[in-house]
Amino acid sequence: MADALTEPGLSIYFTLEVDYADLGPWSTCQGLGVEIENEHRNESSMADYMHQFTGRYSFTNLVLGRPICADTKKVMSWITGFATIVVPTSASLKALDPAGGEIMSWDLSGVVPVRWTGPSFNTAELQVASESLELAYTGFL
Description:
Structural class: mainly beta
CATH superfamily: Hcp1-like
Oligomer: single chain
Helix content: under 10%
CATH architecture: Roll
Strand content: over 45%
Order of helices and strands: EEEEEEHEEEE
Mean pLDDT: 88
Number of helices: 1
Radius of gyration: 20 Å
Distance between the termini: 38 Å
Low-confidence stretches: 1-5
């Protein structure tokens, strides 16, 4: 069986900095990606040849999740700031191994908050109170 400390892909977590403000560690990350439109055109002189042209790039929304913690206040403060000054920002998302070493990082541009979802409370069920943060972005730096 693989050891989590020797296999960094097994137990990674993520950190998010937005305009150099640390929003803390996150346990899940989904949606990091890009979709590229393609246009196909037949070659007029060769019936069996087709040209491929790339079109617009669109970036999928990034969704981060974790149990609520002291860093939740930082997220709420950052989101509240958008109510008064709506300026897309830059962000740095880092995948870290269990010892805190960086595995990979992505620098994002044009970052804006899309949705924050807080915990659902139900005293009849034992579950971790969690939050999720959804971000839109316009590209990679």
